[in-house]
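I hope you will forgive my troubling you with a question about protein structure. The matter concerns a single protein, recorded as an amino acid sequence and a row of backbone structure tokens. Please examine both parts with care and let me know of anything in them that strikes you as inconsistent. Thank you for your consideration; the sequence and its tokens are set out here:
***
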Amino acid sequence: MRITLRTVLLCLLLGFGWTEARAAVEVAASTSDSSRFSTAFRFRTYQDEQGKPRPNPAPEQIYGPLYSVGPVDVSVYLLKTAQGLVLFDSGYRGRDSSLVEDNVRKLGLDPQQIKEIFITHWHPDHSGGAARIAALSGAEVLLNKYDAEVVRTGLYRGKSVLTPCDRVKDIEDGQVFDLGDATVKVLYTPGQTRGEVVYLVTLDGPQGPCRALAAGDATGFKDDVEEFEQNKYPGICADYDRTVEILKSLQFDLYLGGHPHQVFNEMRADGFPFVTRGQWLKMVENRHQQKVVFLQAHPEYANY
């Protein structure tokens, strides 16, 4: 509050009107880091200073009971709860072998205690490890019904894309999971796939209660013809427009994206995961504009 008042007074002293002073305050609020949360965790670039690919990172605490346990370029998150361990997404099927389970062990935890795997969407880099981890732990694999069948059968449009998983359970928009000392709310946000969801997670940590958004790739639109053809379905463009409005309305503290570059390339160069609302809204709008430009270049897809 002191910063806001100081900014207003400075603007007025410099001869700005009230409208200009208020605008300056809004800009400052959207660009400054006023978060009360702190963490040593950062979303890191995929190459080091010499341009060489980074190896898969060690597991790392993000905030309180929340950890990063995935490979260098795809995010997998682990949450310790009173009812056991849960994952958000599961990484690749085979590229990184048992990386996720090994990282859980490195934290001194038992991957056999994983109770739920919350999947944001069926794409193999996010759901590929689910069958393996569920077979080890007996965990339920949770997805929206439109993507659940792909993970359940391993088939997408008749092509094998995943290891079939018999632990899949459908979830609904607005459904809330009470995990004792944390909650997970499902929000249906199609567009990347027909069944994409995001998860609003409430948890506690050293600076108090925190709202985290496990967002997968919900902000993204396939603006490449080949990728659009692979992922299109009737209503995809309208679905994505509605999802953008849902994403803009969300209030959260901690951003848990599907890939690290969503932060270090598009919101904060330093990779700090507690993004400001202004940074979030700018990223969502920039990604929405990619869809607008794509349809201008390819109007044949506008009716999808």
Observations:
- Residues 277-297 form the longest helix (21 residues).
- Residues 181 and 277 are 26 Å apart (CA to CA).
- The two ends are 47 Å apart (CA to CA).
